[in-house]
Amino acid sequence: MVALCAAAAVTFQLFDTDFWQHLLVGRVIWERHAVPTRELWSWPTYGAPDLNASWGFEALIWPLWSAGGVLGLYLWRWGSVIATFAIAVAAARRMGARGVTPLLVAAIAAIASRQRSQVRPESVAALMLAIEILLLESRRAGRRVPALAVVPVLWIWVNTHVSYHLGFITLGAYAIDETITRRRASALWLAVPIGLAVGLLNPFGWHALWEPFRYFLFDRKEKIFTMIGELQPIVWSINWRNGVPLLAAGWPLLALARLTRGARRGGVAGPGAPRFDLAELLLCAAFVTLTVGGVRFIGMLAVAAVPFMSRDLAEWTARGPGARAPLPIAVRAAVASLAAIAALALEWSGSDFVPGVGIEWRSYPVAACDAIAARGLRGRFFNYYHSGGYPLFRFWPDPGRLPFMDIHATGTRDDRRAFIAAERDPAAWRSFAEAMRFDIALLTRPAPAGDRIADFLDADTSWALVFLDDAAVIFVRRRGADAAVAARDAYALVPAGNARAALLGAAVVRDPALRARVRAELERQLRES
Q1: What does pTM read for this prediction?
Q2: How many of the other CB atoms lie within 10 Å of CB of 375?
Q3: Peptide bond before residue 446 is cis, with ω within 30 degrees of 0
Q4: Where are the domains of the chain?
Q5: What pLDDT does 321 receive?
Q6: Cβ–Cβ < 8 Å for 363, 19
Q7: Where exactly are the transmembrane stretches of this chain (predicted)?
Q8: Stretch (H or E) spanning 382
């Protein structure tokens, strides 16, 4: 049931813009037999030192794409999510949760986390979190698991995703719990410095370990990062269907209820008397707080919650002596399966995700890149950071077609600030464009909220709109290397932005001749799309 729900939950077309760059970097790693440590992916900072915490994931995913294409990527999606939640269920079993409860909780958690199920390095991080909790719970259950067994997990995490610090937070929670329970220093504390020391074995040294803290201290409040959807707080109005509220509210409530039951019984062991679990309280506080403040942590919350919520629910529903016999296991399994299917159906009913195996090509500037290749466009490109991955995958290592920003918003702090100002202010855009000496502007459609660069370029006679479709537009300078393209291919009437579109719409109603000319340009747009 868990496997089917998890696989069904993530079987929607890929639309994430980042995975193209992940594929490219993976390809370069395999071709060069080395991890690039210099910026090779955008032109303004080309050759500068670069830190890529996701290199391990990229090296892993490239052979899957190379051998199986889209199917290879889906094999990773299916395999990673099924393995992650299967391990989370195994951890719940270690904690004493029996029956179908862990399966239902895991199915709901998989559904809740599906919005984070793109081909991204956090899929490895989620798997590492599940493995770490299983190891620590096995140790807590009396299994002979060495304290240092988590060190390889932490090393893999350091080399695949910037969120490795969550692994140390998890380790610390269990170390505190074990220290208090056993009334002596836990051997798990030894795994912390050893894990950090082993974590230094990466292509970027101590910089990789420092990166999440550097971001938190210095970059977190930059405007460009506060506008990234996954870094913003959860919007509950669009997340009520998917099970996230059940995790974010249900886990704390269950943990507090368990704590209250234990306090009422004076902490005396016996049938139904829950053990005080400080590790759960610490992890619940950490993961719920992180998730409420940032969408990107939903997947981590889902994984961490499964074992504890399963155990807490199993204890809460445990029957005392003399209670009626429970329903047959087949009946309980059927009820749990129906509940999981209903939860999945509820989420799908309000989702914009396109069901199926494939790539949602309308999310990428495919035809625009075809036009760039066909017309020989090269120079200093301007682009939005979120759209840099696909052109980079198409054209790298061509130095004349590198993006202005890659998927990580790579660049100097001044460049990022100037870019944000240029989105809304025509004078700021002109100053920015001249300072950076852009030759070509590759803009995505629809434009990001509040962005007016297409309107600014429509109004600037030194730029020509030479390509237009539903996914992207291309402007080139009328003077310079692309002057011939501008003279031959410029749209005379149809704009790229919204400011002139309404005026043009009103004008064509009154003027049949103008309407015919606009129609011809729109038909050209359709042909090139």
Answers
A1: 0.93
A2: 17
A3: yes
A4: 2-349, 364-528
A5: 54
A6: no
A7: 154-176, 188-209, 243-260, 281-309
A8: strand 381-383
Distance of CA 144 to the CA centre of its chain: 36
Q: Which residues, given as ranges, of the chain have pLDDT below 50?
A: 267-271
Beta strands in 71-187 (DSSP E): none
pLDDT given for residue 449 in this prediction: 85
d(CA 248, CA 302): 9
DSSP 8-state secondary structure symbol assigned to residue 376: T
Residue 529 CB contacts under 8 Å (≥ 6 apart), including other chains:
367, 469, 470, 471
Cβ contact 305:287 at 8 Å: yes
Q: Which amino acid is at 11?
A: T
Are 173 and 283 contacting, i.e. CB atoms less than 8 angstroms apart? yes
User: Six-digit token pair at 27?
Assistant: 């390809």
Cβ atoms of 88 and 303 closer than 8 Å: yes
For residues 424 and 448, is the Cβ–Cβ distance under 8 A?
no
- Residue 327 has what DSSP assignment? P
Q: How many CB atoms lie within 10 A of CB 67?
A: 10
Expressed in angstroms, the distance from the first to the final Cα of the chain is 42
- Whose structure tokens read 């930059």? 222
Owner of token pair 């996701």: 54
DSSP letter at 51 equals -
Say how far apart CA 280 and CA 125 lie, in whole Å.
20
Res 322: pLDDT: 52
**The two three-digit tokens of residue 19, written as one number:** 């995975």
In the chain, the amino acid numbered 39 is E
Q: Which two tokens stand for residue 140?
A: 């807590």
pLDDT of 323 reads 53
Q: How do residues 411-467 score in pLDDT, each as one tens digit?
A: 999 999 999 999 999 999 999 999 999 999 999 998 888 899 999 999 999 999 999
Q: Which two tokens stand for residue 174?
A: 């269990």
- As given in the structure block, the two tokens for residue 327 are 């329903």
Residue pointed to by tokens 């109005």:
237
| Structure confidence at residue 317 (pLDDT) | 81
Q: Tokens at residue 59, please?
A: 């090296």
Give the list of residues 6+ apart from residue 480 with CB closer than 8 angstroms, or none.
Answer: 379, 439
Residue 26 CA to residue 119 CA, distance in Å, equals 13
Burial of 323 per CB tally in 10 Å (0-12, 13-18, 19+):
exposed
pLDDT digits (tens, 9 = 90+) for 43-61: 999 999 999 999 999 999 9
Of 224, 272, 227, 241, give the one whose Cα is nearest residue 111.
241
